[in-house]
Structure formats: structure tokens, C-alpha cells
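User: Round two. Same drill as before: sequence, then structure, for each protein.

Assistant: Same drill it is. First protein:
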Amino acid sequence: MKTLHIIILLAFTQTLAAQDPDSSIHSDNHENEIGIANSPVYLLKEKAFAYSLHAHYIRGLKETKFGIGIGYERIFDEHKHNTMGIILSYAPLEHLDLSLSPGITFDDNDAKLNFGIHLEALYEFEVGIFHIGPVAEFAYAVEDYHVSLGLHFGFGF
């Protein structure tokens, strides 16, 4: 765990030193992003872990640090939890993205739709048009809350 803290600290320090106030939501190489995140999630009320897969598309707004898009998350647990939402993204520093995603949640076994919201922080290491990095998330839904720490993979174009 200490190693992860050191890596995050070094990456964050590098970003602070190289920040560019004129940079857009991501690098100058792309305005669009298709991404996925794999992570174990901890369901706080159920006190249980499950696997989560998150996919999204975000379009950066020209000459700003903001983006907008859509996202979908699936938690592979006994409930088969799903969330779909609009993503509002902000990049306060190059390679660091913060997002807020209000949307709807539902389970495969229950047709009832509920409000849900996800808060996410992501740090990207770019490799050409691809990027990879750690992602942390907190999500609220009527039935449960969950937190996760995972790995994000993205493709920019």
C-alpha cells in the first residue's frame, strides 16, 4: 500500500510541475475518449466485495478543461446492479480528471429505476493515443453505496 501512495504522490508532483493552464480536458492529442475501468467495489451496506466494469465516452469541450459524455457501470453481484448516466468531467491539472455522473440505477431482477450518482477521480499516464491509470470512485444509489479503486484504460481520438 505504501508503494501505491508513493507512485500516486510522484505522479501528482510531476503533474503540478508541468501543468499548463491552456490545456484542454486531456492532452492536445485528442478531444474524445472511450474508456473502461475495471475494479473491485465494496458495497458498504452489504459489507461485500464484487467486480465492476465501467465504460464511458467523453467529449472534451474545446479550449476548456471540461468534458461531457455518457457512462455505464455494471456490478457483477447477486443483484446484477446497473447504472447509466451523464458524465460531467473536469481536469484541474493535466492528466487528472474528476467527474460527476448523475443517472439511473436498476437491478436485472427489479425493473424499478432509482437515482444514482458517481464521483470519480482518475490519473492518466499517456502512451500515444492510449492512456492507463488508477481510478477511485464513490457511488450513491438508493439501495447501497459503494467505493472502488481500480485501473482505467482509455483511447483518445
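Second protein:
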Amino acid sequence: MSDAGACAHAERRDGVCVACGDCVHDVILNGACFYCGTTDLDPVALSPKKLPPALIPAARLKRG
């Protein structure tokens, strides 16, 4: 299992490359990949949610 896009093979079965076993990790359930079962995933990197900015802009600190 490698980084997304690292596999150059075109044929995949259920998200897993049939030649090298690379997985796209499209479906994550309970912290594990549905296709390959790995739990070594970064939930922040795979999360579709956007993280708030590290600094709050000054315009938002003013009372309305």
C-alpha cells in the first residue's frame, strides 16, 4: 500500500491494484480501509472536512 497515485498500473479490482496491491483507500470505515483493511491511515489527510485556519483574521475578532 503506497501513496495515492504512486501506482502506474491501470487495472484495479475494488480499488486495489491487481499487479502490485496498491490501494486507493476510497472507503474508510471505523478507521480502517474497506478494501485492504489497513489501519495505518492519516485521518486528517483523508478527511473531506477543511480545517479552520491557524490564525483568525483580525476582521473576525471585532464585536458586531
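The beta strands are 12-13, 16-17, 28-29, 32-33.

User: Perfect.
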